[in-house]
Amino acid sequence: MAVGDVTMPQMHVVKGVKIGSTEAYVRYQNRRDLVIFEFAEGSNVAGVFTQNAFCAAPVHVSKAHLQLANPRYLVINTGNANAGTGKIGMANAEATCAKLAELAGVSKTEILPFSTGVIGEQLPLARLLTGLQPALNTLKDDAWLDAATGIMTTDTLPKGASEQFELDGITYTMTGISKGAGMIRPNMATMLGYVATDVPISRELVQQLLKTTVNVSFNRITIDGDTSTNDSCIFVATGQAGGTEITSVDDARYTVVLDVLTRVMKRLAQLIVRDGEGATKFMTVAVEGGADTQECCDIAYSIAHSPLVKTAFFASDPNWGRILAAIGYAGVTNLDVEKIQVWLDDVQICKDGGAAADYTEEAGARVMSQAEITIRVDLGRGQAKDTVYTCDLSYDYVKINADYRS
Amino acid sequence: MAVGDVTMPQMHVVKGVKIGSTEAYVRYQNRRDLVIFEFAEGSNVAGVFTQNAFCAAPVHVSKAHLQLANPRYLVINTGNANAGTGKIGMANAEATCAKLAELAGVSKTEILPFSTGVIGEQLPLARLLTGLQPALNTLKDDAWLDAATGIMTTDTLPKGASEQFELDGITYTMTGISKGAGMIRPNMATMLGYVATDVPISRELVQQLLKTTVNVSFNRITIDGDTSTNDSCIFVATGQAGGTEITSVDDARYTVVLDVLTRVMKRLAQLIVRDGEGATKFMTVAVEGGADTQECCDIAYSIAHSPLVKTAFFASDPNWGRILAAIGYAGVTNLDVEKIQVWLDDVQICKDGGAAADYTEEAGARVMSQAEITIRVDLGRGQAKDTVYTCDLSYDYVKINADYRS
C-alpha cells in the first residue's frame, strides 16, 4: 500500500503532445502495455539514462537516436525489459523503431524506444509490431492517465504530476508521468519518467533543465539501492503554446520553468518511493552543515540505504545508534562526531554526537508513529546540504521480492 | 538457525593464554558477560579496528594503548557497546583498564578494553568493576568455550576455530573465537575476533599476519552492509611453545603460520555469516578474470549487498538478471558485458552477458535448493580475483531487526 497522498491530479493537456496506447499482449492479457507519444514538429527533447553497465537494448538505441535527431515519437512497452538480450535485443529495438517510422512517416532516428519488465527474455516482436497501428489510431492529447497506466509494471498505482503557470500573459502546462517501485523489480525493470511542457525552450536548455532537476529528484531516491538496467527520463518542450523561445538562463522565464519542473520531477520521483515495494513509511533524509554537497549526499544515501535504519523505521523504533553508525561509515573523512546533531522532524534525538539529554521515548514514539518522517542531520562543518528520499524495509519487501516469479 | 556446519571444534589450549570470565550483570541476569584474557609476558599482540567514524570509546582506548605497549590483558564485556557515550564513555573505558591494572599488577596501558551490546547507554561501571576480581579468579588455560560464550550478544551459537601444527619438531596451536551476526545488531554491536598462537613471532610480523588474513576473512563478509562502531580483531603470538622467534617473511615457518591463520580467520569470519540474522543460505561470491583485485572486490560486494539478489536466493530463484544488474552498477568502468560469464556452482546461468543457451530451470533449481551456493563470475578481462561471503535476506532478518528492542 502506498504511503501518504498519491492521488493522480488533474492531468492538464500539453499542447503538441499526443498519446496513444493499446493492448499488445507483450506479457499479460487484458492490460494496456504499449504506449506511444507523438511530439509536434519543432519540439526539443532531452533524455537521461541509467549508469548501469548492463543497460538494456532500448537504452542503447535511444541514446544513439537522441544524438542524431530531435525525436518525434516515443514507443514504450511494459512486460519485457529487452535487457540482457544481446544482438537480437538490439535488432528488436531497432525493428520497433523502423516499423513505427514507416507507419508514422518519419525517420527511424526520430523514434526513441523504451522497455520495462522481465530481464533476459526476447521481446515478442511480432505482437509488439502488430500493436503499433492500433496505438497510433488512438492518438489524442487528453490521454496522460492512459499513458501512466500503460507503463506500469508492478506499481500499485499510476503516477502523475501536472501544473499550469503563466509567463508573459500566456498559460503554459507542465505534465509528467513516472513508473517504478523498486530500483529493480523482481525481474521487472525500473524507473521511467516522461515530462512535457508546451513552453518554447531551446534544445540546449531543455537538456540543462532535465539534468538539473533529475539531480534533485530521480537521482535522490532509493528503495533498495539497486540501480536498474532500463532507467530513463525524458523531458520535452513542444513550444506549441506560443511565445518566444527561451534560449538563455538569464531569461526570467527560465527560473519559473525550472521551479515548476523541479516540483513536477520531485513529485514524480517521490511517488515512486511512496509506492516502494512493501513501503509503510516515507522518509526524507536531509543532511545539512556539510563541507560540500557530495558528502551530504553520501551521508544521506548511507542512512537511506542502511537495512538497519530502514527496519527500525518499519518498527517505529527511534534507534539513533543505527543512524549515527550509518553516518559514521559513509566514508566522509575527518568527521567530527561531537558536532553532529540529528532530529526526527522537530525532535532532537542526538546532540553533539550522543543522546540528546532532553529526548524522551514519548517524543520519539510520537514522530515514529507518523507515515512521513524527516531525518535531519547537521554535520556542523559547513553550509552545504542535500536531501534523499526513501522508504522503510518491511516484511512485504522480502515477500514481494522473494515470492515474485512472473 | 545457522547455515551448514557450525559446530565448535575441540578448542586446543594455547600456551601462554589464560581466560577468566564471570557474570557481571552488565545487562542480563544468569549469563557470562565479562571475559578477561591474560597473555604471558613477552607476547606480541596486534589489532585491527572498525573504520566507522563513530567508533566506540573502547576502540579509541584500545588503539591508543596498543601504540604504547604490548598488551598483557584484554577485558571484554557484552550487553553494552559503550558507543555514542562521549567523554563519560571514554572515562569508563579508562577506569575499567585502571582497575584491572591495579588488580593484576600491570600498567593501565597494558590492557585493552572491548565492549559489545547496546549503543548509546553508559556502561554500568560499578557492576563491571565488581566483576573484574571474580573473573581474574577463574583464569585458566582451558576456557576458550567459556570465552566464546561470554562474548555472544544475539549470536545463536558460540563460534570457534582451532588447529595444531608442527614446525621444526615442535607442536604449536592456533585457536580463536568470534562473535557477530549482523554488521550491527539491532542495538547490539557487532563483530569481535580473538586469535592466539603459541608460536614465537616478532611483533611486526604479528601485525602483518593479522592485516593480511583479515583482508581475506573479516574484511570479506557482509550480512547487511552496515559497519559497526565496535568491530575489533586481535591476534596474539605468545611464543610459549618454544622455538626461535620468526622475524622474517622468508622464514619457511612464516608461510605455514600464514596458511593456518588464514584458515582459522576465514572459518571465524564465515561462522558469523552462517549465523547471520535470518540466514537460510550461505553464499560464496567469487569474482575472477578481473583487471585488478579491487574491481573483483567491488563487484563481489555489489552482488553480496544487493537486496534483490539476497531475496532471490532466499526464494531459491536463480534470477541471473538481478546478478547481472548488480555487476553492472558496481561502478567498474569499461566493463564489456559480452565477456561476462556467471555460474551457480557448476551450472552456467549466464554466457557472454546473456542467458546461457543450455541452462535449464531444473539445473538452476537443483543448485538453489542447497544451503551453500557459490556464485562465480568471470569478467574476462584479466587475471585478478577476489571472494566475499554473505547470506540471503529473509523475513527473519526484518523480523529480528524490526522487532528487537532490548
Mean pLDDT of chain A: 90
SSE sequence of chain A, one letter per element: EEEHEHEHHEEEHEEHEHHHEEEHEEH
CATH topology description of the largest domain in chain A: L-amino peptidase D-ALA esterase/amidase
Integer count of domains of chain A: 2
Shape descriptor of chain A: globular
Task: Determine the most extensive contact between two protein chains.
Answer: A-B, 61 and 61 residues
What is the tally of helical segments of chain A?
Answer: 11
> Which structural class do you get from the secondary structure elements of chain A?
alpha+beta
- Given this structure, which CATH class of the largest domain in chain A is correct? Alpha Beta
Strand content of chain A: 25-35%
Assembly type of the chains comes to homodimer
User: Which architecture of the largest domain in chain A would the CATH scheme give at its second level?
Assistant: 4-Layer Sandwich
Number of DSSP E strands of chain A = 16
Biggest sheet strand order of chain A reads 9-16-11-15-12-13-14
**Could you tell me the radius of gyration of chain A in angstroms?**
22 Å
Roughly how many Å apart are the termini of chain A? 20 Å
Residue stretches of chain A low in confidence (pLDDT < 50, at least 5 long) are: 184-189
Largest sheet entry of chain A: 7 strands, mixed
Secondary structure: helix percent of chain A: 25-40%
